[in-house]
Design goal:
Two copies of one chain form a homodimer.
Chain A lengths: L3 H6 L3 E4 L6 E2 L6 E2 L3 H10 L3 E5 L7 H10 L9 E2 L1 H11 L4 E4 L18 E4 L8 H12 L6 E4 L4 E4 L2 E4 L1 H12 L4 E3 L4 H11 L6 E3 L1
Parallel strand pairs in A: 1-4, 1-12, 4-5, 6-7, 7-8, 8-11
Antiparallel strand pairs in A: 2-3, 9-10
Amino acid sequence: MAPWGKRLAGVRGVLLDISGVLYDSGAGGGTAIAGSVEAVARLKRSRLKVRFCTNESQKSRAELVGQLQRLGFDISEQEVTAPAPAACQILKEQGLRPYLLIHDGVRSEFDQIDTSNPNCVVIADAGESFSYQNMNNAFQVLMELEKPVLISLGKGRYYKETSGLMLDVGPYMKALEYACGIKAEVVGKPSPEFFKSALQAIGVEAHQLLSV
Amino acid sequence: MAPWGKRLAGVRGVLLDISGVLYDSGAGGGTAIAGSVEAVARLKRSRLKVRFCTNESQKSRAELVGQLQRLGFDISEQEVTAPAPAACQILKEQGLRPYLLIHDGVRSEFDQIDTSNPNCVVIADAGESFSYQNMNNAFQVLMELEKPVLISLGKGRYYKETSGLMLDVGPYMKALEYACGIKAEVVGKPSPEFFKSALQAIGVEAHQLLSV
């Protein structure tokens, strides 16, 4: 493998994860990870293109960015690639009207989406909203469709909060897949289309990218 | 294949499912399926051994049998093979102390089981008790074990109630399997051990059995 100096020579853009890279989420807005505020500032002063790429799907980009700004980060909504807006684009393109099994914090991202008479399900890290009633509603919507469409914002198994490990969307996606005998379409990391959309936003090719 | 007369000639025992065979569950205790009360009575008057074998895990055997008796069935608790008592036997044999992710209606079956300081999880058709909080509790118990043990009472995908399709235990079992990267041990149908225990109870071999 080429030495770092040589490898970095071809780098034109940097993709930064947010949770666990820039800050640790938790009560009271979380805490910035040591050195990360300054690191983002330095990257933005450099010749490199910077894009933030997250699987966060409990919050809207507006809320997330507000939180990060309060922690001192130089970041705007337009610089963030997140699953909810990527899903909205798919919904619009394919004329899909979702039943939303999502956290209330991210609901505003779907303001422009028609959710009447659902013909698909969008599932995200819904936290406490993963009640039996809501899961069963989603299940019944899928079972009434001739060709059930399940869109999952990420497929993470769990994440860490200050209070301990928390189930992420992945296990609930698997539950609906098994119940209905279907495969979900994953929007968010590690989907190649998701990374591609982040790269397109900064006009950088995959081989010119450093991902953190 | 041999004609029915010849095939039935070797039959010594009959295994009867309960839900969907004897009665349809639903509000107000459900309703007996036409002809089934008399069919059970006739089987019991015959030379055949009769055993009831169910995956019901929202109710204790006492409650289930009480319900069936009120519908006119000749049935006692001792004639029923059900997942909860089978799981209790495994728990005792292996010194396991479960976190119980179960319906309140079946909790009495576990009265004699030590549930302090859990070293495994037992999951059953918990209905409304499949809250995010309860699922996360079960998940955290499993993740703290060196060798996580998950015992699932059945693995059904869903069942039908008068109000519509309802998610069964299987999808939630799959959720915990995926979250923890493990495989559950299924107690109940279609586990061969479960059928075997039902056969042993009436002293009948598998080839002498008719299953309904």
